[in-house]
Amino acid sequence: MSDLTYFYGIDLAKQVFSIHGVDPHGKVIIHSTIKRAKVLSTFANLPAGIVGMEACSAAHYWARELIKLGHDARIMAAKYVAPYCTGAKNDANDARAICEAVSRPHTRFVKIKSPERQAIMMTHRARENWVHERTALINQIRAFLAEFGIVVKQGRHAIQRAIPEILEDADNGLPEIARELVAECYEHLTVLNQRIADLEQCFDILVKASPTAQRLMTISGVGPQTATAILAAIGKGEQFDTGRDFAAWLGLVPRQYSTGGKPKLGRISKKGNKYLRTLLVHGARAVIANLKKKNDKLSQWAQGVLLRRGFKRAIVALAAKHARIIWALLRNDSEFEYEYAA
Description:
With 342 residues, the protein is of the alpha/beta class. Helix content is 54%, strand content 11%.
C-alpha cells in the first residue's frame, strides 16, 4: 500500500453521516458530520483516496457511488473496526476508527456487489423469510387445533392435507370463530406456498441464463438455489486466495486454538455466511444419503469418511469439499470432473 494515500472513514446512517479523513502524513483534513444530501458533493471535493465503511444494508450502494467519483471504496466487517474505536461510542469516533481500520494492511474487505447481484440476494432473502413465516404459521395452526383436541401428524404436507377436512367436519367441536380463523390462516399459508414456488421458478430462470451456474450444478448436491446464491454472494471468488479460505468464510473448517507450536482443532467454527453454509450442508446430506448408488472417486472418499467419522461429520466434510470445488470451478473457469475431485 502506498505511503502517499488519503484515507477516509464514513459512518453510514439513514440521514446523518460522520466523515473522518487524513492526508498521506496522517494529518486530519476532515472531521465533520453532514446530511445525506451532501455526502457525494463532499467527497467530490476531497482528494481521491481509500474510503472505508462498515458492512450494512446501504454499504454497497455508497461504495459504488464513491467509486464513480474516483475513490477506492472498501467495505469491512464491524469486528475489524472495533479494536480501533477509542473513547465514547459515537458516530464521530466510529468514523475515526473506520479510517484507521481501512489503512491497516491486514484488514479484510467485502467484495462490492453489483446491483444485479444484490437483486439476486434479495430474492434469496425474501424466500428465506417466507419459509420462516410459513413454518411459524404452520406451528401456530397446529397449536390452535391442539387446544380443541385436534392433533395433526407432523410435517407441512400432512397439515396442509388435513386442514380442509378439519374445516368441513362439523362434529369435531371446533367453535365457529376458531374455524374461521383457521380458514384464514390456511388461506395465508396457500399464498405463502405460491410465493415461495414463484421464487423457486425464478432461480430456474436465472440458472438457464447463466452458464457458470449450470457448471456449478454439475456437482452433486448443488441445485439452482445454491448455485445462484453462491454466484450472487462471491461472484468469481477472487476475494479468496484458496478454496480453504472460502470454506473458512462459510464456517466449514475446524475452530483452531493453537499455542506453543501445538495445533489444536475443535468443532467447525460456524462463522461467516450462515445461509450458504446451510445450503451446502443440506446438499451434502442428500448426497451422503444416496452414496450406495455411486462409485466415483468423490463418492468413495465420502463413504470412507462416513465409515470412519459417522454421518454428521461426513456431511460437514463433504460440504467443505464442495465449497473448495466450487471455488476452483469459479476461479479457473473449468468443468467439474468426478474422477479428479477427490
